[in-house]
Amino acid sequence: MVLKSLALVIALAGTAADPDSTLRAANDAAIAGDWARVEQLVTPLLAPTTQQGALSSVDRAEADRLAGLAAFFTQRTDDAERDFVAYLKLDLDGHLDPALYPPEVVNFFNDVRARHASELHAVKPSAKRYWPLALVPPFAQFQNGDRVKGIVIGSLLGAFLATNITTYLVLRSWCHNPGDTCDDSGKNHYRGAQSLSGWNTFAGVGLILTYAYGVWDGVRGYRRTTHELAPYAIATDGGASAGMLGRF
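Above: the chain's sequence. Below: its structure in token form.
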């Protein structure tokens, strides 16, 4: 018993001292499908004493991922779910490459992510948001996470503003007084001035309406609690599961 305890202490010390080589060996064992060997290698890395010592968050995430795979392939799905959740909490964008792993474990992993979406979102660092930006489209839309809408509103604002300024400057060069439609050379710009005046008004009204909509949408987006809501469906050996994923 004493010898076993001593061996365990030595193993823990060795893995804590060089976790990179241990994880490389565990990945090699995973590629070979030797899940017992994977579990043997990563278990010491996930010991509390190791986590509080030299193991970085990146190494811990990798150890959790490998532990989840080992548990899944040894038919311990509860342990696999626990390890995958621990992995995702450290790497919110983590995934299993379908080219490396069979569909059953990839589907299980995605199902775990979906079922623990709210728990995972709780540990996601919130982006800093500023109330004044809600009044400045398109920055308000980008702040709220509505990138496409921000690009559309920004493009419309830029186009309306450029058209309004350009037509104003041309009209200014043609018409020095409200009733004057001729330039200094005497060339008549009456028809052209009428057309440009209409475009100038259209661009000005479009600019104001787009800005007003951008402010309304920016404030609404700043206040709302849900930014995205999307359906998901996961195929499993026993059937399928479906639901909605959202950011809250």
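Confidence is low (pLDDT under 50) at residues 1-16, 225-236, 244-248.
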